[in-house]
Amino acid sequence: MTTTELETAAFDYHLPKELIATHPPKERASSRLLVVNRASGEIDHARIGDFHSFVSENDLCVFNNTRVMPARFYSNDGKKELLRLDFHDEGRWRCLVRPGKKLRVGHTVEVGEATGTVEEILENGDRLIRFDQAVNISEHGSLALPHYMERDSEAIDEDRYQTVFAAQDGAVAAPTAGLHFTESMMAQLPHTFVTLHVGVGTFQPVRETLITNHRMHTESYELSAEAVGQINAANRVISVGTTVTRVLEHCGRSGTLEPGTGETSIFIYPPYEFQVVDTLLTNFHLPQSTLLMLVSAFAGKELILEAYAKAIEAEYHFFSYGDAMLIV
Hints:
Elements: E1 32-36, E2 43-47, E3 59-64, E4 66-68, E5 72-74, E6 81-84, E7 92-98, E8 108-111, E9 114-121, E10 127-131, H1 137-140, E11 141-142, H2 155-160, E12 168-171, H3 183-187, E13 191-196, E14 219-223, H4 225-233, E15 236-240, H5 242-251, E16 260-264, E17 279-283, H6 290-299, H7 301-313, E18 324-327
Parallel strand pairs: 1-18, 3-13, 3-15, 4-12, 15-17
Antiparallel strand pairs: 1-2, 5-6, 5-11, 6-7, 7-10, 8-9, 9-10, 13-14, 14-16, 17-18
Helix pairs in contact: 6-7
């Protein structure tokens, strides 16, 4: 590819603000579905409730079963904000903080009965904070909704910013393609699960002029041997979401899909040869984001930008609580 084709600006588009979904749809299965055919270039309109009709015998849908955790915390005096970035250690948190000047090394923050002390400031500004006792996260924490919603979490988000199959604690953000599915829809679909604990980096734009200079965020994953066996036996692998895609392509990068647990910072952008995923269900992504680059690698940037333009024209809703796209 040419340097121009690898510029971040090449993955931009204009989205009217009123098309950003700031609240969930009335029903999970009521979202619209834009169907993009890579072979023919055809773009059609459907509903997410029609998804099962695109799944054939011996296909396998792969979902991300991570559970979103309360990740936003405020100090008892309301003057300091913590966004917890991982859930590996109950007593030592990695956080984004505001304001930074009030949380330098040695400074403390009280959250409920717990007192945290800033032990280290990492190169990127993240803080490592050691607490003297466990923080009651259900009492003092709230969901960290994406910035573009421009609101704090509400009671409805406790249910709707979580998939119906969420099982493994550890995500800061939801695997949004999975939010469309109900228990009855899942019962109709041959499926298995992987785990990728989605981090806040999923919403961050690429700030480098060339995407090849972008440093990808790292996220924890798990892919079981049982899931690998199901995937290898499938005629077609349907990835439900970019997070699933990243796990499968990370674990299959050698040409053979391997089970494992670890961390991935895989960055998928054009040109890229997919090793595992055959079909992709995904939401609509932010301009100049790594996720838009991933779907562009899967379907071709020109076709994706054409599909986005048609979705905007038809007034689809975008981002986490928005409508979906199926790329076949």
